[in-house]
Amino acid sequence: MSEGRRLFINSTWIIGGKITQTLISFIMGVLVVRYLGPRDYGTLNLAMAYSTFILPICTLGINNVIVNELINYPKREGVLLGSGIGMRCLTSSISILLLAIFILLTNPENINLQLISFVYSFVLLFRSFDLFDYFYQSKLLSKISSVISVIGYIIASIYRVFLLLNKSDVVWFAIAYVLDMFIVSLLFLIMYKKNGGELFFNMQIAKSLLSKSYHYILSTFMVVVYAQMDKIMIGGFFDEKQVGLYSTAILICTVWTFVLQAIVDSVRPTIIEIRKIDYNKYKDYIVLLYSFIIWISIFVSIVFCLAAKPLVLLLYGDAYLGAIEPLRIITWYVSFSYLGVARNIWSVCENKQKYEKYFACSGAVANLTLNLILIPLLGINGAAFASLLTQVITNLLVPFLIKDTRENAILVVKGMNFFYFKRSICSYFIK
Q: Which of 32, 47, 215, 257 could tie 117 with a disulfide, CB 3.0–4.6 Å?
């Protein structure tokens, strides 16, 4: 089978699975958001934000290097997966306990937030098993990951319908997220074992993975800071209702980003392999990827800007009118955000992972500063502007300022040429 054909099939399965999951998620999301209302939905999102803060400690940055390791050392898959999952389970368990103590100390009177945060934090433990997803990506077998993810989400969605019919409290909806990740983790483990796979923990391999991924721990943490700090600061300056409105705007503008994530995930193994064979072709693929992200995002953002009001009213009702203006602002950050996601491929291939922490640190500083200035002045619209400007600074401006990453920034600018977008469509979908 040709390289293009394998890439097309792999991409199709990833996108097909994501489309199915997103359609279910979209329908359930509308029902759940309407049912909970801005305040309870805001409380749920605030709990998620707190849990996401410790995610980098739980993942240890391994996600960013595991595909490369599995491709380069296929005979070590058992010990690579076993060592990675083992480390992540340990750090996740410790992190859940520390988070519970932190929420208890910082929000002593908000029992609802304490309970929801503790329940949702178990998602972090089960996410340790998403390394199986990266394993199947490395084998261009995303069919397996897609089917498992859809099954898990369907079961969790049935549970959500049950909660809606029984008019359940918001804490039970937090359990739905945990249930989804638990089922997916269990199915991944069963499938891997069924196909003869074995898991081994080796301290030397664990140390080797950590030595290659530790650059990403700080960088991922900084990304989390500027991705979640806006919600936490909105909650601090205002209340959970405003968090709910802002979160709804983000929910709408990111509902389609599974397309971008699927493309990045599907092309990652191919680009890594091409890098070892043909450097010029490798750079060309990088530009095509960037161009696709840029232009698809522009088209979608224009649609969201024009249709923001009728879209919010149709989906969520009058209670969420406050989400319209932040939606029109924050929709433009998607392009810059996923350019950063795609840049991780280039960083791994060029062995320049260490610079990711510089990008992330600059983003965290910029986001905190902008949020402190803009949220008191403009409310949730200020948070939206802060998020957009942060992505521009992190994924376009700063890479230009660093000599060793300027080449990547130039590739991004090159990808702004519409010609490359047309080529990317042909390369990824028509062949």
A: 47
Residue 134's pLDDT is what?
80
Which of 53, 62, 140 has the alpha carbon at shortest distance from 99?
53
Find the largest Cα–Cα distance for the chain. Answer: 61
How is residue 393 annotated by DSSP?
A: I
DSSP string covering 178-213, please?
A: HHHHHHHHHHHHHHHHHTT------HHHHHHHHHHH
d(CA 245, CA 323): 5
- Say how far apart CA 85 and CA 77 lie, in whole Å: 12
| Residue that the structure tokens 């009177």 belong to | 109
Helices (H), strands (E): how many in the chain?
Answer: 20, 0
Rounded to the nearest 5 percent, the helix, strand and coil shares of the chain are 90, 0, 10
Instruction: For residue 397, give the DSSP letter.
Output: I
State the average pLDDT for the chain: 86
Q: Report DSSP state, residue 431.
A: -
| 8 Å CB contact between 84 and 66 | yes
Instruction: Tell me the C-alpha distance between 201 and 191, whole Å.
Output: 19
Task: Please count the other Cβ atoms lying within 10 Å of the Cβ belonging to residue 280.
Answer: 8
Spatial CA neighbour of 139 closest among 289, 268, 20: 268
Contact 64, 213 (CB under 8 A): yes
pLDDT in tens, 120-133: 999 999 998 988 88
CB-CB contact of 168 with 32 (8 Å): no
Token couple for 390? 């942060």
Q: Which residues contact 157 (CB under 8 A, 6 or more apart)?
A: 24, 25, 28
- The token pair at 91 is 């750090």
CA distance 275 to 282: 5
Residue ranges of E strands in 27-131: none
Q: Is the pTM of this model over 0.85?
A: no
Contact 308, 327 (CB under 8 A): yes
DSSP string, 347-376: HHHTT-THHHHHHHHHHHHHHHHHHHHHHH
**CA separation for the pair 75, 48 (Å, rounded):** 37
Is residue 278 pLDDT above 60, yes or no? yes
More confident residue, 6 or 411: 411
Q: Give the dihedral sign, CA 8/11/17/21.
A: negative
